[in-house]
Amino acid sequence: MEYNSGKSLDGAQAGGDTVANLIRWVMDKEEMEIHLQQGRCPKQPNGWDCGVYVIRFGEQIAADEPIPQTIDGDIERLCLKQAILASWQCALHPRELANLLPVNPWTPKQNMETFRSLFVRRSYLNGLLQTSVAGFQSLSSHRHTMWVICEDVHMAQQTALLSLVHHLHTVHHAAVMAALSADAELAELASLATLQQKAKELVEMYQSIKAREAAERISRPVERIQDHFDMITHIVSQTNPHFDAAAQASKSEGERHLKASTRTNHYVECVLTLLVLRHVVQKFRSNEKKLREQRRGMFGGAWY
Fold it and tell me: Which SUPFAM superfamilies match (predicted)?
């Protein structure tokens, strides 16, 4: 997961101190000297092109445990839990997709057709590479034929990669939502258990007051107070089964451990998905670079 500090509360761009402190903590070197250089992509949210992967403390984030205050805060924690695909290294820019055919490659059937087309075209291209140039009318027509096939192969491969990128986006978003849902369930169990304890304390207090005043003459104001207590007791009795179920669930170490483990697994899935996504995006861009080099080789830069 690439860490970007983003904007501060006042809307200004944050500096590189957060990233530097993160590196020092990950490397466990408090006095480590770090010199951040201006990145190739100045539009990065933190103004620096510094790829920092925070896998090391992903488990603390998932378990809602504290991490060093130099890199921990409401904004940072929210970004670490929910930041998806904001990084240039994990998301394709619209201009990178401008030359792709306007097809929808997201269905499994279309994916299979794309890969099948890729392999067929590649085999065809390999066969043509073994064909003698003398079989063509001219060197120019040979180059043109080879280039058309090369473009087709490139288009099929990029479309397949684009389909994979879309799938990884979907998987990552689902993992984030599942992790946040598990967070909410654990928080709800804890809050319901606390609420049940407070309700029991309130009922016990009322029972002690009622027993103490039973043998004495009770004035009307006290009767009104007891009426309120009777209402509270009725409400508690109606909701108590839910409190009991919540308390039982929260007391079960096995279930709580399972929920916490599930939450951690979802966060790990988020990180791993981003790593795979980063690799796929790099492959997509390397293919574009390779195609430009082939253009220069075939046409001497005339088509570049």
Answer: Cysteine proteinases
